Amino acid sequence: MQNGVKNNGDFILGVKASIPLVIGYLPIALAFGILSKTTGISILDSFLFSALVFAGASQFMALNLILIGAGFGEIILTTLLVNFRHFLMSASLAVKIEGKIKRWIPFIAFGVTDESFSVLSFREGKITKEFTLGLQFAAYFAWVSGTVIGYVAGGILPKIITDGMGIALYAMFTAILVPELKKSSKVLFLALLSGGVNTLLNYLNLLPKGWNMIATIILVSFIGSCIYEEEEVKLCEQQ
User: Is residue 179 part of a domain?
Assistant: First the structure.
């Protein structure tokens, strides 16, 4: 009985810890729902986007790819590359969560986002699966419900406002990128390189629509891994 009380308490603690995430997710989810409406997809498609993908940046990117006429394969591959970091985040959390979690692994892995990972990774000591699931459930509910509300609002709000929501994608990426640019000149270099490579590929028009972004991600990621690998080798030599 005590375990049950403790587990329920941990779940509630997880929900409470998610409040900052919920506050941050709702306006972005609303923006995604509104953009989904203006893109022309159905409310069911918009709901399934958030319910099954649950990856903000990738969902905005997918909408953009849909608008330019990219194929399903290009959208899926681009989303996979953008979200590849989740493998590393999940591996890190796997050693931090205590107790038997085998049957819960699919749910916990699905709920991993940059924000939830940040909360969980900075929490001192081990964390329980109940706390993790409480945190992720509340964030997930906010994201999905915000998307549906945004879609419905997209049919009510004036067109000038819904058209202006397109800036939400760029605002979101800027908010993610700027803090990292302040920390590292290498991140600034890679960001500028990404923009330059993608612009060049669009200008040359050698690849089908949507593949320019995929090629940019692969090329710049390779260059970035080489830069950081050289830095690690130098640090090892100094030690």
Answer: no
pLDDT above 90 covers a percentage of the chain that reads 18
Q: What percent of the chain has pLDDT over 70?
A: 83
Q: Is the dihedral of CA 157, 159, 165, 166 positive or negative?
A: positive
- Domain of residue 204 covers 184-239
Which of 110, 132, 167 marks a domain boundary?
Answer: 167
Digit-coded pLDDT (tens) for 140-161: 999 999 999 999 987 777 776 6
150, 193: one domain: no
At residue 5 the predicted structure's pLDDT band, cuts being 50, 70 and 90, is very low
121 shares a domain with 13: yes
Q: Binning pLDDT at 50, 70 and 90, where does residue 163 land?
A: low
